[in-house]
């Protein structure tokens, strides 16, 4: 049998098995006790005709400059008129909150960026990549923790999503609720990672293989503002925010330590420049009615939020 193993050749001699007793003698010079210095350790892979390669290439990350946000006076929503003049206001990019372990436990909800989105235009095409955010909250009535993920990103960012959650001690099975802000591929690319999570999409609530249209309570309510919403946890509300599509959702997180109210809005607001010229509204709206609806929805969100996560 040993002779057969030594002589076994596969794929025209390009790949052959190596008996373990041929490799072990080369390990005699390894310093197992760690008492004697050695120049260079011998690798067990040095005797192999090939080197093991990782299945996935590491993803590349880009560094973004940090800017201080220019605050502006919040407006109060008028039920008779939902218009707002944004002329003269400037919006700068700001990193939204990350937990600071040096400050100890944080009281209240936490918003954690897992993946930063991208919206840019060239002369030939658009680049869309959704932001992925993790929200930690609780239900005080049942003392239950809430693990909420807003959008799942493109499938090519799978490793980033899994690693980003793990960096904060969150396993994939810990995520209880998925908020899908819109139905483009950049928002739903990693839905398969969360087979047991409850999915909120448009006016539907999806549980595994079934979905329920929210026509009866608990459903969207309109008592707090002009936008329909439903409460998810103590400090988090899901808002129906039509604009990019009629079924878009946004997650509004209240009482975030040091930041107030944060609105995670998907494609409702694509970036800070988009608020200044409304270019996306003009380019992606199919008619004048959609333009008016999109702008009115934006105004509602701007009036209730201190920070916007596009």
TrEMBL record:
Pfam families attached to this UniProt entry: Lactamase_B, LRR_4
Presence of the UniProt keyword Repeat in the record: yes
Lineage: Eukaryota, Metazoa, Ecdysozoa, Nematoda, Chromadorea
Residue ranges of domain Metallo-beta-lactamase in the record: 143-199
InterPro entries: Leu-rich_rpt, Leu-rich_rpt_4, LRR_dom_sf, MBLAC1, Metallo-B-lactamas, RibonucZ/Hydroxyglut_hydro
Species this protein is from: Acrobeloides nanus
SUPFAM superfamilies found in the cross-reference section: L domain-like, Metallo-hydrolase/oxidoreductase
Gene3D superfamilies given in the database record: Ribonuclease Inhibitor, Ribonuclease Z/Hydroxyacylglutathione hydrolase-like
Protein name: Metallo-beta-lactamase domain-containing protein
This protein's UniProt keywords: Leucine-rich repeat, Repeat
């Amino acid at each position: 049998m040993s002779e057969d193993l030594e002589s076994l050749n596969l794929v025209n001699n390009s790949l052959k098995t190596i008996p373990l007793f041929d490799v072990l003698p080369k390990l005699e010079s390894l310093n197992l006790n760690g008492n004697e210095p050695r120049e260079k350790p011998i690798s067990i892979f040095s005797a192999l005709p090939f080197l093991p390669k990782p299945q996935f290439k590491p993803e590349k990350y880009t560094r973004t400059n940090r800017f201080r946000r220019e605050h502006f006076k919040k407006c109060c929503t008028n039920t008779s008129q939902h218009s707002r003049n944004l002329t003269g206001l400037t919006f700068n990019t700001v990193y939204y909150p990350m937990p600071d372990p040096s400050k100890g436990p944080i009281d209240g909800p936490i918003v954690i960026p897992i993946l930063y989105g991208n919206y840019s235009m060239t002369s030939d095409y658009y680049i869309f990549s959704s932001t992925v955010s993790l929200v930690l909250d609780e239900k005080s009535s049942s003392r239950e923790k809430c693990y909420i993920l807003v959008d799942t990103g493109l499938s090519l960012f799978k490793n980033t999503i899994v690693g980003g959650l793990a960096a904060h001690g969150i396993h994939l099975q810990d995520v209880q609720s998925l908020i899908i802000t819109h139905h483009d591929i950049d928002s739903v690319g990693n839905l398969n990672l969360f087979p047991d999570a409850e999915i909120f999409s448009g006016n539907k609530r999806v549980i595994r293989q079934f979905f329920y249209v929210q026509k009866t309570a608990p459903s969207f309510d309109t008592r707090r503002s002009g936008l329909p919403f439903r409460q998810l946890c103590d400090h988090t509300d899901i808002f129906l925010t039509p604009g990019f599509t009629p079924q878009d959702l946004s997650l509004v997180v209240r009482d975030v330590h040091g930041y107030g109210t944060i609105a995670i809005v998907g494609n409702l607001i694509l970036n800070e420049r988009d608020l200044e010229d409304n270019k996306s509204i003009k380019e992606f709206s199919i008619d004048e009615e959609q333009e008016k609806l999109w702008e009115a929805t934006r105004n509602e969100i701007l009036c209730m939020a201190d920070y916007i996560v596009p």
